[in-house]
Design brief:
Number of strands: 12
Pfam families: LacI (PF00356), Peripla_BP_3 (PF13377)
CATH architecture of the largest domain: 3-Layer(aba) Sandwich
Largest sheet: 4 strands, parallel
Protein name: LacI family transcriptional regulator
Order of helices and strands: HHHHEHEHEHEEHEHEHHEHEHEHEE
CATH superfamily of the largest domain: Response regulator
Keywords: DNA-binding, Transcription, Transcription regulation
Organism: Anaerococcus nagyae
Distance between the termini: 75 Å
Number of domains: 3
Shape: elongated
CATH topology of the largest domain: Rossmann fold
Number of helices: 14
GO molecular function, one term: transcription cis-regulatory region binding
Helix content: 40-55%
Structural class: alpha/beta
Length: 333
Amino acid sequence: MGQPTIKDVAKLAGVSISTVSRVMNNSKPVSPEARKKVLDAIEKLDFKPNELARSLVMRKSNLVGVIVEDIGIEYMAQLIRGIEEIGRVYKYDILLSSSYGSEEALNNSIAFLSTKQVEGLVVITENLSDDTLLKLRETRIPFILLDRYQSFKTISSVKVDYAKEEYNLVKYLYDQGHEKVLFINQDEDNALNNAKLEGYKKACEENGKNTYILNTEGRSSDDGYKIGKETIKVCKENDISAVSCLDDEVAIGLIDYCTDNGIHVPKDLSVAGFGDSTIASIYRPNLTSVEIPYYDVGAIAIRALIKRIKKEEDILHEDWIMDCTIKQRESTL
């Protein structure tokens, strides 16, 4: 005997197929007597509905599509964890796809997930074109965009105020007794870099300090190492005792250079990073850094998306700004 069908349930319960459907989906009122008959029949037959068919009919799959640039990027993995774990609390599962920085792959992922009856989309990217944003809107599927560079000011999302957090970090270094702080930024014009530079300058201005700025070519530890010689030269010439780096990788590269050249961190020079990657707490000396609550960003994003799916109150009618924490460790005095 094959798997029982909704027709078998209706026959055993002595009711119509539509009544069985109403009980299963809790869509319309059913008398207590009829409901009991249906539930008894479902239990006796061990009836399991075809979820795919139900999702097509009800247009409800309890699936959310998540598109990431690369799951190998640490902060993206943390975002996904927050999305998946909180999504499950609301009985939603995720379908994951990666674009690997390719706009074509990103567009293909949007099209593919649309065919899988996902009820919502979360797009995690560091670069989104206007054309791709248009494709997202054309799907008419509710979506949340988590754009690290905050390129689209008209789209509300869960964000970090990088200017404020860099300001707080530099202020912390001043409060530690450092009179002069060098800021190492990346030589690239984007919202993320510009915000951190703005925060650094504001902290210097409000504390009556001079600004000292160097730019790296990139954001890797190699870039931090390469700029090490120039960094130490500027620090010695200006009696600078602390360096704030745009991210942890650059900071670790700079510390490596100091170690190779007999400069003790933090005794001779304090170094701080930004992002609090896993390596920040493992590396020696442990790196002082700004901890970004990526898990919480993902958790709030999926909660907001599910509310949009259910047409409930939109908690992202304006940006949700997350507060960060300075993790004080061995690399600063």
